[in-house]
Amino acid sequence: MDPELIKDCVHCGFCLPTCPTYVLWGEEMDSPRGRIHLMGQHVTGTPLTGEMAGHFDACLGCMACVTACPSGVRYDRLIEETRAVVEREHERTPEERAIRAMVFALFPYRRRLRMMRLPMALSRRLQPFLDRVNPSLGAMAELAPPPARPVRLPPLVRARRRRRARVGLLTGCVQGEFFPQVNAATARVLALEGCDVVIPPGQGCCGALSVHSGRPAEARRFARRTIAAFERAGVDAVVVNAAGCGSSMKEYADLLADDPAWRERAEAMRTLDLAEFLVELGPLADRHPLPISVAYHDACHLAHAQGVRSQPRALLGGIPELELREIAESAVCCGSAGTYNLFQPEPARELGDRKAERVLATGADLLVSANPGCTMQIAAAVRRAGKGEIRVAHTVEVLDASLRGLGPGTLGGAARRARGNS
User: Fold this and answer.
1) Key word Iron present in the record (predicted)?
2) pLDDT tens-place string over residues 216-229
3) For 263, what's the count of Cα atoms within 13 Å in the CB-facing half-sphere?
4) Half-sphere exposure of 85 (CA within 13 A, CB side)
5) Which end of the chain has fewer CB atoms within 10 angstroms, the N or the C?
6) Rounded distance, CA 375 to CA 359, Å?
7) 3-state helix, strand, coil in the chain (%, to 5)
């Protein structure tokens, strides 16, 4: 907890209406400025109590407060540092330790996650029982998407038109195993827009889940492996299609600041969100009409952490006959927040229900998001509301359908899964 960063907060309160937990409970200590006050107490000698740890754990790390703050407070840095302190100094219950150990032994590792896809999807039927055993297990069962058909991507996808760039594609862990069709669509779109797409071996988890959960040493190991994988690929930029991953990779230099050589290598790696990259590159391929209404959801680590808001809307808005509809309270987190909906399932469900209500109110045919966690979270909330399965797609899947002249029926739900790697 950096005392100088703590001093930057003037306790003005602009962050309060943007903070999801303050919106839910109206408690000062569950607002950004309240948590900063607790950080200041700890820095000046107050021991970390269980109650203090609870307030820090309740933070989603959505960074809406960073967007709202007129003083430029680096709450993102503060909460990451604080989570590391909590993990070092706070003794969790055996049950909490077991759940956390299971999550971090499973989700960052694609092979382990692959083995668990079908059991997790089948466990939906057991959710009420699992909820009684442990709410985190119930949340894991509820969030699991239906198993997707595997997609095998070659090491290199050649540009389909005039070659304009050579880019690396992060395939990710959760994205790669639960939503492989998003990676396939990403490679196709980049190739159609004139890019050679390199999918290097040796990449895995980027470290986002670890760094956001107070496990910096683990995050640094993942970061060094990711940097090395893309260095060998010799690319102009690394393109990321998952908001949380992109946010963390753009902060690699800070994460590796204690090692000058690795910091320099991190700074040399240019990381861009897919929408950010495509808008900067400019369109090359023709867009075909796609008569569909779309509700676009701002993933927190895209909108707040990376400041990428207009670019996804520009891509969607450039598709003929597509109607873009805005979601009320778009700046308020859906409750996913990396591992938050697993470790804090009750407030996560409250926020998910709130977001699902506002998504459904748009009356759109399709929900579009740029983060796998948000997709699973909102879809689960819609099911919980008794509204069945909502059609959900990534921004790049919509663009892919337009570029290839596919109809709106190919987007979302069973139709999307049936396409597989076509």
Assistant:
1) yes
2) 999 999 999 999 99
3) 8
4) 20
5) C
6) 12
7) 55, 10, 35
Instruction: For residues 268 and 296, state if they share a domain.
Output: no
Rounded CA gap, 277 and 77, in Å?
25
Q: First vs last Cα of the chain: how many Å apart? A: 49
122 shares its domain with 244: no
Using one digit for the tens of pLDDT, what is the confidence trace for 387-419? 878 899 999 999 999 999 999 999 986 334 333
Strand partners, 199: none
Task: Note whether 245 and 170 are within 8 A (CB).
Answer: yes
- Number of separate domains in the chain: 4
CA dist 170 and 313 (Å) reads: 22
Q: Are residues 134 and 222 in the same domain?
A: no
Considering 89, 110, 132, which residue would you say is the last residue of a domain? 89
The whole-number pLDDT of residue 413 equals 62
Residues 295, 392, single domain; the answer is: yes
Torsion angles phi and psi, residue 140, rounded to 5: -60, -40
Decide if 140 contacts 117 (C-beta within 8 A): no
Q: At what angle do helices 395-403 and 310-317 cross, to 10 degrees?
A: 30
Confidence (pLDDT) at 420: 38
Are 355 and 300 part of one and the same domain?
yes
Helix axes 395-403, 274-281, angle to 10 degrees: 40
What are the φ and ψ backbone dihedral angles of 155, each rounded to 5 degrees? -60, -25
| Domain's final residue, options 233, 254, 279 | 279
Residue 161 is predicted with a pLDDT of 82
Residues of the domain holding 112? 94-143
Answer whether residue 150 is part of any domain.
no
**What tokens does 374 get?**
């948000």
- Name residue, tokens 């993990």: 87
Would you state the pLDDT for residue 114? Answer: 84
Looking at the structure, do residues 260 and 292 belong to the same domain, yes or no?
A: no
CA-based radius of gyration for the chain: 21
Residue 226's pLDDT is 96
Do residues 183 and 216 both lie within one domain? yes
* Ranges of the chain with pLDDT below 50: 414-422
Taking the C-alpha atoms of residue 318 and residue 294, their distance in angstroms, rounded to an integer, is 13
Sequence-ordered alpha helix ranges (H) in 179-249:
180-192, 208-211, 216-233, 243-249
Q: ∠ CA(296), CA(298), CA(299), 5° rounding?
A: 130
The backbone torsions φ and ψ at residue 13, rounded to the nearest 5 degrees and listed phi first, read: 95, 0
SS3 string of 43-69? HCCCCCCHHHHHHHHCCCCCCHHHHHC
Flag whether 398 is in a domain. yes
